[in-house]
Amino acid sequence: MEQLNTAIMKRYSKERKVGEGTYASVYQGHCVETGRMVAIKKIKIGQFKDGLDMSAIREVKFLQELKHENVIEMLDVFSAKQNLNLVLEFLTTDLELIIKDRSLIFRPGDIKSWMAMTLRGVDWCHRNFILHRDLKPNNLLINDKGILKVADFGLARDVADPGMKMTCQVITRWYRPPELLFGARAYSSAVDIWSVGCIFAELLLRTPYLPGENDIEQLNTIFRALGTPKESEWPGHTSLPSYIKFQDYPKQPLEDLFSAAGNDAIELLGKCLHYNPHERISAGSALRLPYFSNQPKPTPPPLLPKPLKELEPRALPPDAVTGQGNNKRKADGEQDHKPDLRKVARKIDFQ
Amino acid sequence: MARRDQWIFSDEEVLHTPSVAAGLSASDELRDRIRGVNWLLRIGVTARVRSDSLYNACLYFHRFYMRKSLQQHDVEQTALTCLFLACKAQDAMKHVTQLAALAVFKHRSDTAKAQGRAMRDKEPMHIKDEPDVVRLQENMLSCEITLLRTLTFDLAVRQPFPLIVDAARSLQLKRFDVVMMHAVLNDSMRSNIALSYPPLVVALVAFTLPSAVADEAYLSGTYRDINWQDQRWLGAFGVDVSADVSDGHDNGDQALQPGKRSRSVSGDGDATANNSKRMKGESGSGHTNVHSSQEVKADYTDRPNDANNNAPSHTPTHTHAHHLLMDTRDAIIRFAMIFRYLDRDVRARQQANKGRIAALLSCFPKRHDSVWAEDEILGSF
Questions:
Q1: Which of A69, A129, A166, A281 shows the smallest number of beta carbons within 10 Å?
Q2: Do residue A159 and residue B288 have CB atoms under 8 angstroms apart?
Q3: Are A166 and A138 in contact (CB under 8 A)?
Q4: Could you give the number of structural domains in chain B?
Q5: Per the domain annotation, does B51 fall within a domain?
Q6: Closest residue, chain B, to A283 (C-alpha)
Q7: ipTM of model
Q8: What confidence tens digit (pLDDT) does each residue in A111-125 have?
């Protein structure tokens, strides 16, 4: 095994550092043999009281299992000294950078193409009984051929047995579904679909759709945009652990805000942002909606808009020392590399 | 990248482990493995580790010693590290300090008991800063990396238990039947059958063996009435038993129905049903089948000493079900090998069950070239 490990290690060269976080550094490198560019995620160990960080364990475990065109590929794993190194395919940009690049113009077919690739990646995870739990534009990486890949499985987990308690502190706040904000401890693949809905809206609007400043404000933002849910619409939500009553906002038709989107796009958006998680659409069914078969056809990936500038060193989300409840900081980490938000985010809200 | 089937070993490999190569006898190896698993389960149960993590931990342990020798890697420390890693990989972390303190505490209380004196410390966590605990903790953390490397970072394990739960439900068995099966599954972790057979065969062992080892009073009438000779009960596991004969190339294609119970999260209906259950926080025996039967099938066909390689050429007309049952028979025999290492009273109980075990085995087809000497093993406990 040691020889095998050394052999794998020798297969790759580590070049410049492209990212740094508390639990890992990312390097750009090459496969010596093939010249293929790779990203090497070096997990720091020995810093944590409990050995290897749980996010690293999750990432290794799930990426070993998942092989799909729209999921980031782990090419190898090796350990060097007291470090764990994940060799990942090198991806040049991410959807967040593309959305933010104001010089790019999105055609309807472009958005459809990104959505289809996202949903295919998410569908593959769900078919393999894996919840991603941190979908956001920043975690949808894109390679030089325009192919989008779901990445960062540091918060992923197996679909649990019904009734098993899981932490509700997952998913970056703006993409977090209402059931988690209300403290649901048992949830399903539907949580990822809500995030996909938010990403879709963000692609259409070119700005985050539901940017709440804290957890309470997040719910308020959601309800202001989509109407406060009635018991009939989402049975049982009033008995969730952290349920609180909100102002009664009326339901506004999605068409009003997304005036440029066609009816088929509105249908997809509405089904992803459905309040009742039991009725929220699955990734597989979403891909079969008319939106994806109607004109215009999804843009072929190589023809999708891509940013002119190189991928900047990407701040990695800082990681908590313990496994439990380490996800809140992920949302906080989000603010860390969005300094423009930090001020408002720290504001205390007495809703 | 690790191959999917790197963890299914041939009989040859199971008999010639690194420890045996380094001079340990096969029976000593089995004894040491059982000691390690017992230690793992004892600490794990005290630390309230979930049963899925316990199962994975035991499997990591057995896999580790297919690549490393018992002589070079301390059994208890490895067992403890497997437990630690499995909890982490199952998203149910236990702190290294807690496990290390518990292990040292148990050792001390064993010694104290043996010497007939009272324990000085009352709580494991009271001793967490003592040198013994700190040392063990450091050893566990460095062992973690060795373990990960040896397992080639392949941590996902397919569990047999969800298969059992699904089958029991479709046959409308009682809760206690399933409890008995779970108990057999727990005991099976001491044996190394999961190194040789896919989760489906391990599930079949746990499913059938209660009929031979459990007190009949605890078993439901429905379960006791299952006719093991009639392969139809295998249908509950999604195995197609309608075709009597298939062609010689038993690739399992038609032999296993693509999971009648496979719960694709992508299917709308399924997802909804599962969701509603979860949202209401309904507990009970409902388990989500982590892997679809399609995968089980693929896994099964991957087995190196599968029918294609091992079946004598003059019997080319066995069904997939037939091969499954031959493997189940072998696996039960290998499971029975651990009995003679168990405590005396447990052994005595199994002794009494010998006739029932033999009767159950006779319901299953026998592999002609099996390397596991059935009569000898049954006679040994």
A1: A69
A2: yes
A3: no
A4: 2
A5: yes
A6: B266
A7: 0.73
A8: 999 999 999 999 999
